[in-house]
Write a structure and sequence with these properties.
This protein has 421 residues and is mainly α. It is 61% helix and 6% strand. InterPro entries: DUF2786.
Length: 421
């Protein structure tokens, strides 16, 4: 009789193949176990051990706990993701030092904790999920197949167990508790809750103005120190529906905050590269604007149904694409206004030529980081498939003057290239 590790290997190979009957037979073998008195417990432990080993191999390949959690939910289901969280907690318990603070913080946010010994993890999880043994084993094998199939991705921060992990700064959380960012969060929360589009856009514009000032302060502070920081990165979800429109929104928000964005469509996320304060800004704005864009789209749908049109996916997508482009142009105008004001203030002091070279050097460093991590990126061209949806989306993002610096009125440019993808 095969031992537990062989049974797991056979079931995994069968699930990866195309013979459905063979896969079911191998799962039946897992149900039976090794034939020993503790055969089923041994199978459970073998599954979890192999899953834990697979997770440990992902960290040097660029994956982070939140990435694995997100893709498991996307490709399987949230229930499977909860099994992965338990396995990540087990893996963390045996992880070699050093372990960076950001890694443990992600596990805490995912509520990952060791609830049982390795031998009992699968049984404890299936009990919480009210699964019978057959369904639990099938889900566990599917999770294992996914984890072992994930490709290498860009390494954004030193992973656990490597040089630099102990001192790695969380790329998207620099001074995230500052009073300035607290004000930004409050403005964005009001923008999300208001039912008046003009008020929402004015609040968002003010938030971008504060963010731009904060970014300039951080840039000047870093320029006056010798920390030797390099640009970091974060990954933002661009899941279906309307993944392309979400990726475009990420790109527009990133560009307004001196960051670069790359969309990995097949993996369901966009990677944003930039300096810590700017990455915090992009995360905050993207999350808020996604809520605002969805609310505006739903209002547009209702107005459209009240008329002669009917809702279509093409209309929704065109609406969201237009919204992203117009909002991006307005955010960039706010950033430019804040930069001009700061540069003018610097011109009146001894630091007249200090600001713009600092910003230029930081921008070049971000582009170099992009070229290093993503040497083969390509650009996709945005196409307008529904003129009515495009017009509605543009109007939704353009109903109010943001009045944060008097930038030029943005041009509507259907068909402009979107991000490197």
């Amino acid at each position: 009789m095969p031992d537990a590790d062989e049974l797991v290997a056979n079931a995994l190979a069968a699930v990866r193949g195309t013979d459905v009957r063979l896969a079911e037979r191998q799962l039946d073998q897992l149900m039976v176990g090794t034939g020993a008195a503790d055969g089923t417990t041994a199978v459970d432990a073998a599954l979890v051990r192999r899953l834990v080993r697979g997770l440990g191999r992902l960290w040097p390949r660029g994956w982070q706990p939140v990435d694995v959690d997100r893709i498991t939910s996307r490709r399987i289901d949230p229930r499977a993701a909860r099994l992965v969280r338990d396995a990540m907690a087990v893996q963390r318990r045996g992880q070699s030092d050093p372990v960076p603070a950001w890694f443990d913080e992600q596990l805490r946010e995912l509520a990952s904790e060791v609830r049982a010994d390795v031998e009992n993890v699968l049984a404890a999880w299936s009990g919480r999920e009210s699964l019978d043994r057959a369904d639990a084993l099938r889900a566990a094998v599917d999770v294992l197949a996914l984890v072992e199939s994930l490709p290498p991705i860009a390494v954004l921060r030193p992973p656990p167990g490597t040089t630099g992990a102990a001192t790695a700064r969380p790329a998207g959380t620099a001074r995230s508790g500052s009073p300035m960012l607290d004000r930004v969060r409050a403005l964005l929360a009001k923008a999300e809750s208001t039912t008046f589009p003009a008020e929402a856009e004015a609040l968002t514009g003010k938030a971008q103005e504060l963010i731009a000032r904060h970014s300039i302060d951080e840039a000047l502070l870093a320029a006056g120190s010798e920390r030797g920081d390099v640009p970091g990165g974060v990954r933002l979800s661009t899941d279906t529906p309307y993944a392309g429109a979400k990726a475009l929104l990420v790109q527009e928000v990133a560009a307004a905050n001196r960051c670069e964005a790359v969309w990995s469509d097949d993996l369901g996320f966009a990677t944003v590269l930039g300096w810590p304060a700017d990455l915090v800004a992009v995360e905050l704005l993207y999350t808020s604007l996604l809520v605002q864009a969805t609310a505006a789209m739903l209002r547009g749908r209702a107005e459209r149904r009240a008329g002669s049109g009917r809702r279509t996916k093409v209309w929704d997508e065109s609406f969201l694409n237009a919204f992203a482009l117009r909002i991006g142009e307005r955010l960039r105008a706010a950033t430019e206004a804040a930069t001009d004001a700061a540069d003018q203030a610097a011109a009146e002091t001894a630091g007249a030529e200090r600001l713009l070279p600092v910003l230029a050097a930081r921008g070049e460093a971000v582009r170099e980081r992009l070229d290093t991590l993503f040497p083969g990126v390509t650009r996709h061209r945005l196409s307008v498939r529904d003129a009515e949806g495009w017009s509605s989306g543009t109007s939704a993002a353009d109903r109010a003057s943001l009045d944060v610096g008097g930038g030029r009125r943005p041009r509507q440019v259907p068909g402009r290239p979107d991000d490197r993808r």
